[in-house]
Amino acid sequence: MTFAELDVAPELIAALGKQQITEPTAIQVAAIPVLAAGRDAYMNAETGTGKTLAYLLPIFGRLDAGQAATQAVIVAPTHELAIQIQRQCTDLARNAGWPIRALLLIGGTAMDRQIEKLKQKPHVVVGSAGRIRDMIAKGKLKTHAVRSIVIDEADRLLALESMPSIRAIIAAAPKSRQLIFASATVQDESTAILAKLAPGLDMVRTGSAPVNANIEHLYLVCEERDKPEVVRRLIHALQPERAMVFVHRNQTAQEVAAKLAHHKIAAVDLHAGSDKGDRKRAMDDFRAARARVLISSDVAARGLDIAGVTHILNLDAPAQSKAYLHRVGRTARAGAQGQAVTLVTRGEVRLVRRYEAELGIVMRHVRLREGRLIPAGGTPRARPGRSATERA
Predict the structure, then answer these.
(1) Model-level pTM?
(2) What are the chain's domains?
(3) What tens digit of pLDDT does each residue of 274-300 get?
């Protein structure tokens, strides 16, 4: 199947070509015809499979560039994901040569400036649920012409704390609007909510397993106090092209970043305690490879598509398998290979068993010896090179 066979506009196909995207992924093949027909749908596919373009392409195909009105609203759970989606919208429009305007609406930015930009009548609005709801309530974001509403990372946004804002956004749009939900997982508690929000929606699923098969899963047992030092030693042993280190606490992210910097490892930290400017600088440095390591709390685990992430290191093991799934989904994207190493204390080994049972994966026990990662109790494995594909 080709993009042309999916009736994607030639200008959009040319725009994709400029991003070296020439063939649709499985979720794009399955979702584009459904969404192009204007039907409500829930897209469920593993991370890194192109869900964003799966909904952007049909949405762009239905936009009327000559109508000065907001026609699509895309809601994301984090500022970083919203920025990424808005950037993809802008790139798609520019490369297609279409006069489509996409505006970012998130907290932490001066509302007055956003209100001024709304006067330009953007065709697409991307942002956080709270800020979009506020702009609608103030009468600054007009929704009378909205044709599509996207709830990205839906399993998170359909949680109880986000629902008042989500319901308000949907209620403000015409009843004929299309609802699109996208996520790597579907939570049981979301089923009843979806039945009320979009009765009769199409479930569009691809992939037989929730976890990308191109990820190698490893775990290493160590003392809690030793974890920051073990992360440093792992980076030395693995020599990742680009790695993300996940932690629970903001302070831990700052401490690990400082420790790596002391050892001449270019690293940045990203967490909920960072202000908007610091978070943007951290993401820009990591995307541009000025920093090889990004230390982050779970604020960055959802939906971000950063090219070239070869390794995920979990300094703090997540309590839930769903969180592990979203973290490791930042590697092995678009058919690449990736490796995830989780640090656990002896008491946390139970979490490894939970991931294996609930996600259907196998996690191999490893240890560090003489600067190399080896099977626990086994013979040394060859030291991997800088590419994730050159692994033991």
Answers:
(1) 0.73
(2) 10-205 (3.40.50.300), 215-375 (3.40.50.300)
(3) 777 888 888 899 989 999 999 998 766
